[in-house]
Amino acid sequence: MTDAKIDYAAVFQGLPGMVALLTPDLVYADANEEFLRMSGRTREQVVGRFLFDVFPDNPNDPAATGMRNLETSLRRVLSTGERDTMALQRYDVESTQCPGQWDQRYWSPVNAPVLDPDGKVVLLVHRVEEVTELIRARGDAGGSRTRVLEAELYTRARELQEVNERLRSAHAREREVALALQEAMLPTRRQGAGHQIAVRYRPAVGSLNVCGDWYDVVDLVGGNRIGVSVGDIVGHGLAAAGVMGQLRSALSATSRVADGPAEALDVLGRYANVVDGAESATVVTTFVDFDRHTITYSSAGHPPPALVHPDGRVEFLDRATDPPLDARPDPMPRPQASTTFSRGSTLVLYTDGLIERRREDIDKGLARLADSLVRHRNIDSEALADAVLLELLPRGGATDDTALIIVRL
Question: What is this structure's pTM?
């Protein structure tokens, strides 16, 4: 049976468990028959209504936390785009037969995102399993000791949820510190000050997957030359920020004395071998000579820079690509290639967060980038950087951090 012949609406209604769909505003978009039956609600009482208007906390229980815990979980899914499994919850439900009477109920919820092609959360899948009868049955069969054990189980589940919340808060603080550290270590505009250069860094939204991307611009010795680089560290948080700072500083110093970008990456690769956390780091560096109108480049496993010519032709600099920094045998020299440019061309370096999407070939991301660069090639470098980010990054925020540097030649 092909997908075209499957009635997915009927499948949804026939699911054996309780499943509901919520909008990002936490309004019920749909609910299957099992959800309605087990909750004692009609479709008209649920669909189109705000979640917590349908199922508020028990006003007679000042210690009730079910509504707060559920909202926290759903908001987390919206911000991270990842599934969230909740601890066992006591969430009382008002009786439809006797308004004002609240039934003590226990639930095991799981919340998951539905993503659009851009990675934005467009719906929330709210699946719940009621365990009230199981707890009551075990309590009735086992007497007081079983009831004590069930109470302990519920207490431990609550404690686990509180621990998870504290861990998430700690991770959020680490993310803020790591971003501040990275911002302090990335270069200022003093380098390459005589040229039109725009730099951007966008951290992943609602994620610890940040601080592995970096960029650098250095003034090179001899002539009107600059070195332009971007890199990506595997890892995240403070550890990635620290490794990023070490590799960026090492390449910045090496570029000033190296004969070319290949030699600079060769020295950087040897250094990366003794830096914990630098495994599989990627980087591309370009030496731009404004007097000779040449770009010499070398890449260690990184996506190719794009050179936009004044006539709209996009040239991806992919003729000198090598494995990541620590993934090649020594003492083989790294490859190096050169190309020429005309006045008015634009050089663009970036990290994979700008072009890569889940379950999509990288060539599609490169084509998107080329199309955006060509359409906006006549605006200044700062406006071009903003336009590219606006068009290429997912509307709901990227799941990986992104570095971008644009040089008007």
Answer: 0.61
